């Protein structure tokens, strides 16, 4: 997903984890970019605890969130990006 960031947003906050309906299965690769800069490059597995995300978006005009297949064969790749918000 790609979002334009109007105004002066400074932070992206969220919690990322594999959905409880498929845990402990599931494995994804989460990449978040601000403009063309990689802000987060993180593998997430169903055996992992949810991971807090707090990224600096200062000066960024475009936010890109990519969820790709992880190391497994694609079973249960259901990522939840809970309580996601951008903050001014």
How would you briefly describe this protein structure?
With 88 residues, this protein is an all-beta fold.
Explain what the structure shows.
- The protein is mostly beta strands and 88 residues long.
- It has one domain (2-87): Jelly Rolls (Sandwich), CATH 2.60.120.1060.
- 0% of the residues lie in helices and 58% in strands.
- The chain contains no helices and 7 strands.
- A 4-stranded antiparallel beta sheet has the order 1-6-3-4, with no helix packed on it. A 3-stranded antiparallel beta sheet has the order 5-2-7, with no helix packed on it.
- The model has no long low-confidence stretch (mean pLDDT 92).
List the helices and strands and how they pair.
Layout lengths: L1 E3 L6 E8 L8 E8 L2 E9 L5 E6 L5 E8 L9 E9 L1
Antiparallel strand pairs: 1-6, 2-5, 2-7, 3-4, 3-6
CATH topology: Jelly Rolls
Largest sheet composition? 4 strands, antiparallel
Percent helix, as a range, is: under 10%
Taken together, the total number of domains comes to: 1
CATH homologous superfamily name? NPCBM/NEW2 domain
Number of helices: 0
Proportion of residues in β-strands: over 45%
Detail the poorly predicted runs: none
- Number of separate strands: 7
Based on secondary structure, the structural category is mainly beta
What do the pLDDT scores average to?
92
Give the terminus-to-terminus CA distance: 20 Å
* Radius of gyration of CA atoms, rounded to a whole number: 13 Å
What is the chain-wise order of helices and strands?
EEEEEEE
* CATH architecture annotation name: Sandwich
CATH class: Mainly Beta
Largest beta sheet: what is the strand line-up? 1-6-3-4
